[in-house]
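ugh ok fine here u go
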Amino acid sequence: MSRQQRDALDALLRSVPRAGTPPTVEEQRIGFAAAVSRPVPEGVATRRTLLGGRPALELIPAGTTGPGRLLYLHGGGYVIGSPDTHAGLVGELARRAGLRAVSVAYRLAPEHPFPAAVDDGLAAYRELLAAGTDPRDIVLAGDSAGGGLSIATLIAAREAGLPQPAAVVVFSPWADLTLTGGSMRSKEDADPIFTESDVRAYADLYLGAADRAHPLASPVFADLTGLPPLLVQVGANEVLLDDAVRLAGRAGADDVEVTLEVGPGLPHVFQLQYGRLDEADAALDRAAGFLTAHLARHPDTARLEPVR
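structure:
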């Protein structure tokens, strides 16, 4: 790992529980917010709103026009994180794609266990459609648990008879809450952020006694037929590597257009290190290009050119 990559990890490491007395959920939430939160990019306005009955943060890059919308579901193991902790990352993706974005504060465990987060993701997507937004003008994105939740939301939308959006991008998706991926153990020494026990603790809080292989909890076991084009980005140095690889494989097997990118030597959700890590900026550019390319298949949708 380069010095630039190592320096980029310092903030994230402070938010992960280590030896000693385990922090409370509230302490984890406070620590995560302090470690991960970054300012909204210059030129991106924000507005508090509601979507699907939940608080949400809208992010509007300057000069954005047209109906294109990005629905973002943040990471944090279904236990921590919020639209505020991810405002910098979402703002960067929105700015580069030239899209209005909305990041939803879905309900968190343990106060609201599975399937509350999926219900909230589906409600947010349903409201965008009910407001008259053409599904061809909607794209989804999410990181970590929010990546798995993005896929679960689309599965739930399909089962509800709703149309699919234009595309979806996931960063280091947590897509197997049974923790059976080989990298959960083989990459533990390489992963500078998480261990298997860290990930298991979040799964316990979110799922409790629920079936950990349920398709809406672990989309690697779901039928993904009919989902929109999918871009999966993951770091090679993370215990969730196999979640991403198997999710992409499942999508391909189910005839979904899918692109998998594995970043050598990179950690979990390395995209958070934009502006500090060249690989993060390049990955966000590719993600933005993927979203806008699929929106462009709908010729009536006008929008900004992606920012490079």
